[in-house]
From TrEMBL:
Belongs to the shikimate dehydrogenase family. This is Shikimate dehydrogenase (NADP(+)). Shikimate binds at residues 18-20, 65, 90, 106, 223, 251. InterPro entries: Aminoacid_DH-like_N_sf, NAD(P)-bd_dom_sf, SDH_C, Shikimate_DH, Shikimate_DH-bd_N, Shikimate_DH_fam, Shikm_DH/Glu-tRNA_Rdtase. Pathway: Metabolic intermediate biosynthesis; chorismate biosynthesis; chorismate from D-erythrose 4-phosphate and phosphoenolpyruvate: step 4/7. Involved in the biosynthesis of the chorismate, which leads to the biosynthesis of aromatic amino acids. Catalyzes the reversible NADPH linked reduction of 3-dehydroshikimate (DHSA) to yield shikimate (SA). Residues 10-92 form the Shikimate dehydrogenase substrate binding N-terminal domain.
Length: 277
């Protein structure tokens, strides 16, 4: 008798653009696992009942994406320290007893991507400049605090969102005016775009890198296009650059391991599979 296939998926609204099914689908094929990873679109009024139904249908867990990363926490029976620090979850395990365990692997994915593509980089080597103060910034600031960045400067168009992050993450976080961001690159080790600027269909993030040390690393969370105007300007200025696709790939690995039982590799084949999806 064959066993029921292992099930996981991603819940959001809209969900059609998500690369996660291509990513997990690649790993399932590569490791020959009898499983499925399914995109699920839930409207807000169906979110809670929809989530509650999934373990009954045999789902071992799910990823949660926009706009539900915060909502899911209120349904969780158990929340990891990092999800609780960030105030949002992206990786959900359904426990044997039907309970919901909520974790957040975005910060892990962010740091792993930099360590993978720039082995000489360390968060500890100097201040970081974070551009943006939305949901992605929250996970990245938490990860940079935990990774030992000595100072984290946040510049955001809407200053009070940056101030809210300073209040949340404490003494090492400082707030910089959005129009002073280029100057705040002085003596940084890491410069991070967490805004949606530079994404296909969005205006570019126009910053000059003259103030940045040549030793600094610039990275973007935008990965469509892979090389954003922000990254190409940083590269022209002689900085080390790391694109944002790897963050998406690395954040997916802990969930895959938990649901499907294999620690998956993040490599060029996976990048190619996700890019061509
Ligand atoms: P996410 O969860 O992906 O981070 P978000 O919470 O909507 O999404 O945050 C988007 C970020 O991009 C914010 O920092 C936003 O700045 P505001 O807080 O001022 O809205 C930033 N952003 C988006 N469009 C921008 C623009 N045209 N100029 C400057 N910043 C922009």
């Amino acid at each position: 008798m064959s066993q029921a296939p292992l099930l996981a998926g991603v819940v959001g609204n809209p969900i059609g653009h998500s690369r996660s099914p291509a990513l997990h689908g690649h790993w399932l094929r590569r490791y020959g696992i009898a499983g499925h990873y399914i995109p699920i679109e839930l409207r807000p009024e169906h979110f809670e009942t929809g989530i509650r139904a999934l373990p009954k249908l045999g789902f071992r867990g799910i990823n949660v994406t926009i706009p539900y990363k915060e909502t899911i926490l209120s349904m969780a029976d158990q929340v990891s320290d990092r999800a609780s620090l960030i105030g949002a979850a992206n990786t959900i395990m359904f426990r044997e007893d039907g309970g919901i365990y909520a974790d957040n692997t975005d910060g892990y994915g962010f740091i792993s991507n930099l360590e993978h593509h720039a082995p000489a980089w360390s968060a500890k080597s100097g201040p970081a400049l974070v551009l943006g103060a939305g949901g992605a910034a929250k996970a990245i600031v938490a990860a940079m605090v935990q990774a030992g960045a000595p100072e984290i400067r946040i510049a955001n168009r809407t200053r009070n969102r940056a101030e809210a992050l300073r209040e949340r993450f404490g003494a090492r976080v400082t707030v910089v005016d959005w129009n002073m961001a280029a100057g705040a690159m002085a003596d940084t080790a890491t410069i991070i775009n967490t805004t949606s600027l530079g994404m296909d269909g969005q205006p570019p993030l126009n910053l000059t890198f003259e103030a940045a040390p040549k030793s600094a690393l610039a990275t973007d969370i935008v990965y469509a296009p892979l090389i954003t105007p922000f990254l190409s300007r940083a590269a022209e200025a002689g900085l080390v650059t790391v694109d944002g696709l790897g963050m998406l790939l690395h954040q997916a690995a802990p969930g895959f391991q938990h649901w499907f039982g294999v620690r998956p590799d993040v490599d060029d084949d996976l990048r190619a599979a996700v890019l061509s999806a």
